[in-house]
Give the backbone structure.
Amino acid sequence: MTKPTLSDPITLRIPEDVFLDIETIAQATERSRSWVIVRALRTYLQQEGAEILAYKQGLDEVAAGETEDLDDVLEDLKRIASNKVA
């Protein structure tokens, strides 16, 4: 298994209760604190973070003029619905 490319180290201050939970999980799983934190960040990025990134992408597309006129979309939907396949 190849090792991932890592960023430069970062400094982070977190609430003590969060730190203690990370430390406890790291010890219980025999993993490093970094491993636990990366897993937590990946989970966040797959859930709430993904929603934020999708929203930003939508804003970027609108700003770039990559839009569809709502009336055209509604007409397409009406056309599709009227061509029902039995």
About this structure: The chain has four helices and no strands. The helical segments are 16-29, 33-46, 48-63, 70-82. The mean pLDDT is 92. The chain has one domain: 16-82.
